[in-house]
Design a protein that fits this description.
Bound molecules: flavin-adenine dinucleotide
Order of helices and strands: HHHHHHHHEEEEEEEEHHHHHH
CATH topology of the largest domain: Butyryl-CoA Dehydrogenase, subunit A, domain 3
CATH class of the largest domain: Mainly Alpha
Number of strands: 8
Largest sheet: 4 strands, mixed
Shape: globular
Distance between the termini: 40 Å
Number of helices: 14
CATH architecture of the largest domain: Up-down Bundle
Structural class: alpha+beta
Number of domains: 3
Helix content: 40-55%
Oligomer: single chain
Length: 388
């Protein structure tokens, strides 16, 4: 087996490293502490380089960068801690519109997304529909050439920066759960849309969005009426490894190493000399390497023209669960002072470890919880029976 990347992929990596060194400045990273993992200036620079178009498959009219190139893209930006949470949604929604959408959506929405002008948020989850997203109750009713939308979505991340939301709605309550759904793209400035902030324990800001008699024309429908579940399946297909960050532990390990090297215990021995600390640091580094090969395996399967499914779950489950474990280990290493947040006198490593520790639990929830990923792996890889 040859694990080496091609010269094209390596050149792309070098280009990305240079880009990150220039544009992902400490100020850009610092800004993520506002809770919004997006920076317009950086986003436009990424778009100017054609990397958003590049992420779209060539058969859909995009630049067709290979899955391996996209794995390099995600890896380099994530390792640089670039705030790029908007990009995964853009690639996903633009791809689905290009595959299943009408000409209006293709000309009205796709260029704005891929030229870096607009963001789109994902309006799937509701207060009573998360893992079981098909339990969606937000209603869309036909009124001549228009649709009237009423309901509430929960966790509509990035809606406060976005121009659009891809919205899963129920159009026929009489049909079985998965068959009465229809997908829309809804402009977030439409009258009747309300966006309320939800601040998570992990600093990240997300939103609750409310739809009160929101009227849109039929042009905004994505896919056929009552075929929303097919559109959802296409959405999952196009996530292309963006969901659930594979390398969240990288900056954490760096901060932990820094602390262990520069601090001493009461006997004057450097913390890094402690065998438990050393073992945990090394295990975390090995885990990070495992995250990398899992991500590349997913890309490799996609590059071979096959549809990955369980591999995405494996990567997401492993990286988020290990990240949470690493956070616990390193917070433990810091002792009680580890709980001091950034900006507080005495906070170690600028509060980096504490911040990650608060953030880690949500990574095991969004993009599908760990239990859902385990079910998926158990059923579709290990051949175990369905639990529910
Ligand atoms: C910070 C954040 C950002 C998010 N961003 C978005 C977004 O942008 N757009 C969006 O649409 N959604 C978003 N989500 C929602 C996210 O996808 C859901 O929270 C997630 O799918 C879980 O759904 P739920 O919260 O309703 O929990 P539930 O589905 O109610 O689950 C509760 C518990 O039951 C377990 N459980 C549920 N079903 C099963 C089962 N079949 N087998 C075993 N255990 C099960 C779960 O694992 C969990 O532990 C976000 C969530 C968070 C926290």
């Amino acid at each position: 087996m040859n694990f080496a990347l091609t010269p094209l992929e390596e050149n792309f990596r070098a280009e990305l490293r240079q880009f990150c060194a220039e544009h992902v400045t400490p100020e850009v990273r610092e800004q993520t502490r506002s809770g919004t993992l997006h920076n317009w200036e950086l986003h436009r620079k990424i778009a100017e380089r054609g990397w958003l178009w590049g992420a779209i498959l060539s058969e859909l009219g995009g630049g067709g960068r290979s899955p391996m190139e996209m794995a390099v893209f995600t890896e380099e930006l994530q390792l640089a801690c670039a705030p790029i949470d908007g990009i995964g949604n853009i690639v996903l929604v633009a791809s689905v519109i290009l595959e299943l959408g009408n000409s209006f959506l293709k000309s009205e929405v796709v260029p704005k997304l891929l030229n870096g002008e607009s963001l789109v948020s994902l309006g799937y989850s509701e207060p009573e529909a998360g893992s079981d997203v098909a339990a969606c109750r937000t209603k869309a009713e036909r009124d001549g050439e228009q649709w009237i939308i009423n309901g509430q979505k929960m966790w509509t991340t990035m809606a406060h920066e976005a121009d659009f939301v891809i919205l899963l709605t129920r159009t026929d309550p009489e049909l079985p759960k998965h068959r009465g759904l229809t997908m829309f793209i809804v402009p977030l400035d439409a009258p009747g849309v309300e966006i309320q902030p939800v601040h998570t324990i992990g600093t990240e800001r997300t939103n609750a969005t409310f739809y009160d008699n929101v009227r849109i024309t039929d042009n905004w429908r994505l896919g056929e009426v009552n075929q929303g579940w097919q559109v959802m399946l296409a959405c999952l297909k196009y996530e292309r490894g963006f969901a659930g960050g594979q390398y969240p532990s990288a900056p954490l390990i760096e901060a932990a190493k820094q602390y262990a090297q520069s601090h001493h215990n009461s006997e004057g021995t450097a913390i890094i000399e402690n065998p438990v600390v050393r073992e945990r640091l090394v295990r975390a580094m090995i885990d990070l390497e495992a995250c990398r090969v899992l991500a590349y395996r997913t890309a490799y399967i996609a590059a071979a023209g096959e549809q990955f499914g369980v591999e995405g779950s494996m990567t997401k489950l492993f990286s988020s669960e290990r990240y949470q474990q690493h956070c616990n280990w390193f917070l433990d290493m810091l002792g009680p002072e580890g709980l001091l947040q950034w900006g507080t006198a005495g906070a170690h490593e600028d509060g980096e470890i504490e911040e990650n520790w608060r953030h880690a639990p949500v990574t095991t929830i969004y993009g599908g919880t760990s239990e859902i990923q385990r079910n998926n792996i158990a059923e579709h890889r290990l051949g175990l029976p369905r639990s529910r």
